[in-house]
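Dock 2-phosphoglycolic acid; give full complex structure.
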Amino acid sequence: MEIILQSDSLSANYIAARIIARQVRQKPESVLGFATGLTPLPLYQFLIKMHRNEGLDFSRVTAFNLDEYVGLDPAHPASYHSYMQDNLFAKINIDKHRTHIPDGLARDIPASCLAYEEKILAAGGIDIQVLGIGSDGHIGFNEPSSSLASRTRIKTLTVQTRKDNAGFFGGEDKVPHHVITMGLGTIMDCRMCLLLAFGKKKARAIAQAVEGPVTAMVPASILQMHPRAIVLVDEDAASELQRAFYYRWVYDNKPDWQKY
Ligand code: PGA
């Protein structure tokens, strides 16, 4: 894992944006995996700015999102379909037909999950997957105890995650219980993972994911097994890391050719 510790979340988001922009410039038909939640919002703002000011071209990019709520109409303001439209897709020149988000209204959920996996494969696999982390250590909506080899499927949210997401729905009781999420195995198949985490609320999950044992009880810890996982954190999210000094030194002393 590469741990990049920045003094504030904005500079960490900007590094993530530069990594994605470089990928898209080098390979215009890149396949990008997007995440939702509060964490990647500044990253999407940077990508929009790069599109508008520097002509960053998304016209040949294919996108796959991590997850969606079951039973939520795509037009619902708290759906991840709405989130992606409002915060990124409508503001860049991505082809809508190349954007994919799990179908929370699918009548046959297992068939729809299988089809989602097949679409990712048919697109050539995901080049960069953006990830947030839940305060309980989840990535995507792979809650603690998720199989480390899991594929896209239905999951049940924990009480903690429903509490954490209550703000998007105007109350915890309105947060759906079920979701469709890429599995940990699906995420592990991507060629690069960019995990973003900011704020004290994420400090424990980050310390466990980065420096704890690989365990299904902290699903993000599986990224220790990924050959190219980059963890971007601010000081608060890094505050429980034992080796922060080392990670900072490594980043500050990267050879020029290795910088982002
Ligand atoms: P957040 O969610 O970005 O809103 O904190 C992250 C997650 O649950 O994966």
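Observed: Residues 9-26 form the longest helix (18 residues).
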